[in-house]
Write a structure and sequence with these properties.
Layout: H1 2-26, E1 51-55, H2 59-75, E2 80-85, H3 88-98, E3 103-106, H4 112-122, E4 126-130, H5 136-144, E5 149-154, H6 161-165, H7 168-174, E6 180-183, H8 186-194, E7 202-204, H9 216-228, E8 236-242, H10 246-260, E9 265-270, H11 276-286, E10 290-292, E11 305-307, H12 314-319, E12 323-326, H13 339-343, E13 348-350, H14 358-366, E14 370-372, H15 376-387, H16 390-396
Parallel strand pairs: 1-2, 1-4, 2-3, 4-5, 5-6, 6-7, 8-9, 8-12, 9-11, 10-11, 12-13, 13-14
Helix pairs in contact: 2-3, 4-5, 5-7, 10-15
């Protein structure tokens, strides 16, 4: 099965490369360090120090891993930490959170040669992979080189299981090389065992996202932003981490909200920076008066939408809002982090597709901390009811 997998990877590689080249043409952020995806030209490594490699695929995983990284740096102050990502936005978030205190790079493609070159250069004493990344060669070579590997806050969604089961012997081999699996939930633990992970090395440690470090500065910054933007007397709701197909729903909902709250403001924040201009074009076609955050000026009363076209300001936008809609949940992406707005005591509206963190979503829904809305009418109804009832907002928050 491993031979077949490697043949399929080689056959599919040209299409993967074409995809990333297309992304690079559309977004200049994808162009630097292209060679790292083939296991070449990584940051300099000091081999006389302990080396910890942590992989977090993109922004959400990097943010979730932040408390773990800080704990590692506190307990292993002499260690050199390398954080790899797949996306430029993930790499940028690493730099924003940790500056020069860690190294950052792209993880290699799951080709035997690329993976071997990566390990030969980094030579990690410990490898930690966050959440959902299951790469047979990356795991297999770590086992061959006797590199301790931990899957932290590991999860497998029910939707992914049929796909993994078609290659169950391959994943059984990948998960059998001494890997420690720290699963998010008992259901995740069972899925890993079903794929062949040894029960003796598979544990339930909870979802690392619950270790989010609440920063009271976010609420302070949000209030200051609201004051600076002349929003203290206006109802404000934020739609964060939205994807293609969701902005249309959110804007339709906002039009309905404006019927009851004509001075309401929507802060719209697409998930990926490469879509900021696309969202701006959508807003232009919508007929709604809008302003980009990068224009950095107070909002006139006629402005109905603020387009959050910056990086790293979502916590501040949450802090400035009365209600939060969390995206990736109306389209079938699986939902994004509900804990960020919850940490600021915001009432949450979300779509029905929440399989990326179903345990958190179920807990929030069952406890009345979140409302499910699957279309523009439901989103607008939920937001209107919350804007109209301060006690309901406080209770949900």
């Amino acid at each position: 099965m491993r031979l077949l997998y490697n043949l399929l990877v080689l056959v599919g590689l040209p299409f993967v490369v074409l995809y990333w080249l297309w992304r690079a043409l559309a977004d200049a952020a994808y162009r630097p360090q292209w060679s790292q995806r083939f296991g070449l030209h990584y940051p300099s490594i000091s081999y006389d120090r302990p080396r910890v490699w942590l992989h977090a695929v993109s922004v959400g995983e990097v943010q979730a891993a932040a408390p773990l990284v800080r704990a590692l740096r506190s307990r292993l102050p002499d260690a050199q930490v390398l954080i790899t990502t797949v996306t430029p936005t993930g790499r940028d978030r690493v730099r924003l959170l940790f500056g020069d205190s860690v190294e950052t790079a792209y993880v290699p493609y799951d080709l035997l040669g690329s993976v071997s070159r990566f390990y030969n250069h980094v030579r990690p004493n410990l490898a930690i992979i966050i959440e959902t990344e299951l790469w047979p060669n990356l795991f297999h070579v770590a086992g061959q080189k006797r590199i301790p590997l931990i899957l932290a806050s590991a999860r497998i969604s029910p939707r992914s299981m049929p796909r993994y089961k078609t290659l169950v012997s391959l994943f059984r081999d990948a998960l059998s090389n001494g890997i420690i699996i720290a699963a998010q939930s008992e259901a995740d633990r069972r899925r890993f065992v079903e794929l062949g992970a040894p029960e003796s090395r598979t544990f339930v440690s909870g979802n690392i996202k619950f270790d989010v470090e609440y920063d009271p500065g976010h609420a302070i910054a949000g209030h200051q932003f609201r004051s600076d933007m002349q929003l203290l007397d206006r109802p404000v709701w934020v739609a964060a981490s939205t994807h293609q197909g969701e902005e249309e729903v959110v804007l339709d909902a906002h039009r309905r909200i404006l019927n009851d709250f004509p001075d309401a403001l929507l802060i719209l924040v697409p998930r990926h920076p490469g879509r900021f201009d696309e969202a701006a074009q959508l807003l232009e076609r919508s007929g709604l008066e809008f302003q980009r955050r990068t224009q950095a000026q107070a909002l006139a009363a006629k402005i109905k939408v603020l387009l959050g076209d910056t990086m790293g300001e979502v916590p501040m936008f949450y802090g400035a809002s009365d209600v939060a809609f969390v995206g990736g949940s109306i389209v079938k992406v699986g939902g994004h982090n509900l804990l960020e707005p919850a940490a600021l005591s915001l009432p949450i509206v979300t779509g029905p597709h929440l399989f990326n963190a179903q345990d958190i979503a179920t807990m929030f829904i069952d406890s009345g901390a979140a409302i499910i809305a699957d279309d523009a009418n439901a989103v607008s109804a939920a937001v209107r009811s919350l804007l109209n009832d301060a006690a309901l907002r406080d209770n949900m928050g």
